[in-house]
Amino acid sequence: MTEAEKTEIKVAAICGSLRKASYNRGLIRAAIELSKEEIDGIHVEYLETSSLPMINPDLEVEGTYPAEVEEFRHKVLEADGFLFASPDYNYSITPPLKNALDWGSRPPNVWARKTAAAVSAVGGGRRAQLHLRQIGVCLDLHFINKPEFYLNAHRPPRKFNSDGDLVDSETKQQLKEVLLSLQAFTSRFQGKKKG
Ligand SMILES: Cc1cc2nc3c(=O)[nH]c(=O)nc-3n(C[C@H](O)[C@H](O)[C@H](O)COP(=O)(O)O)c2cc1C
């Protein structure tokens, strides 16, 4: 492993929406692009949650989990930190996101002592993010406080194109600030020197 690889922060990005044209997944695509093109020392990878079964401890057999869950948990373990893109469903996080958090929390809790940032494509996401942070206390998941990131994707001016890709340069800059903050926080958290 090279020195650069040792100091690179690995971020798994998780979307709370299953919608094909999800604005929140659009934010994750933009974050991946930013990590490749504009920020050294951070690698953002999309982590799929849609194939996870609904949480059910009956599916656990002698401490092992269904194949999709094992694969998901392994990817969570490999990450240094997380970028959650969370819509607001009735003032809270969505069922797919809670499901993913719950599967990862089963013993041993794979979220523990890792870092996270949350972003939302809708203004109501600030409520969901507070619930997400509260769950993070139980999971021993450590969130950056600032910058906070909420959009009003449904209101003009349009920030996403018809494919759901983020096209607004000011918003991209705000997203970049979130990634830089997560990178710096994770480096401090792990005692890593910046690459
Ligand atoms: C079941 C459900 C509940 C919702 N509740 C809220 C809400 O309480 N507040 C809000 O701002 N938006 C709410 N919405 C709207 C979504 O947050 C909004 O459509 C958002 O764009 C979804 O994210 P996505 O584009 O990534 O799929 C709700 C949507 C659904 C399907």
In short:
With 195 residues, the chain is an alpha/beta fold.
Number of domain units: 1
Q: What CATH architecture label applies? A: 3-Layer(aba) Sandwich
Total number of helical segments? 6
Question: What about the largest sheet?
Answer: 5 strands, parallel
Bound molecules: flavin mononucleotide
Q: Under the CATH scheme, which class?
A: Alpha Beta
Order of helices and strands: HEHEHEHEHEH
Helix content: 40-55%
- The portion of residues forming beta strands comes to 5-15%
| Morphology | globular
Q: How many strands? A: 5
Regions with little confidence, pLDDT below 50 for 5+ residues: none
CATH superfamily: Flavodoxin domain
Radius of gyration: 16 Å
The residue-averaged pLDDT reads 94
Spatially, the strands of the biggest sheet line up as 2-1-3-4-5
CATH topology: Rossmann fold
> N-to-C terminal Cα separation, in Å?
13 Å
- Secondary structure class reads alpha/beta
Description:
This protein has one domain (3-190): Rossmann fold. The chain has six helices and five strands, in the order αβαβαβαβαβα. The chain has helices at residues 3-7, 23-37, 67-78, 95-105, 125-139, 169-190, and strands at 9-15, 42-46, 81-85, 114-119, 141-143. β4 (114-119), α5 (125-139) and β5 form a beta-alpha-beta unit. α2 (23-37) crosses α6 (169-190). The longest helix is centred in the last third of the chain and has 22 residues, at 169-190. It starts with a helix and ends in a 5-residue tail after the last helix. The structure holds flavin mononucleotide. Residues 17, 19, 22-24, 87-91, 121-122, 124, 153 line the site of flavin mononucleotide (FMN).
